[in-house]
Amino acid sequence: SPAAVGHLGFTGTSIWIEPESEVAISMLTNRVHPRRDNQKIRDFRPKIHDLIMDALDHG
């Protein structure tokens, strides 16, 4: 929703808060392992957040 807020961290961590659904998602990761130039987390984070929200909507 437009009320959703989030923050992304350098190592791949993220927090996403959806006040209308009363959902908060926190993800702790280490994208710098095994190499600092690993950028795969950029595609993964939005996908996992969307999957979690979908699962909660249909659960």
List the helices and strands and how they pair.
Blueprint: E1 5-8, E2 14-18, E3 23-27, H1 41-58
Antiparallel strand pairs: 1-2, 2-3
Instruction: Determine the fraction of residues in helical runs and give it as a percent range.
Output: 25-40%
Oligomer: single chain
User: How far apart lie the N and C ends?
Assistant: 19 Å
Structural class estimated from helices and strands? alpha+beta
Principal-axes shape call: elongated
Query: How many E strands?
Result: 3
Strand order of the largest sheet: 1-2-3
How many discrete structural domains? 1
Radius of gyration: 13 Å
The residue ranges in which pLDDT falls below 50 over 5 or more consecutive positions are none
Average pLDDT for all residues: 89
SSE string, helices as H and strands as E:
EEEH
Count the helices. How many? 1
The proportion of residues in beta strands is 15-25%
Q: How is the biggest beta sheet arranged? A: 3 strands, antiparallel
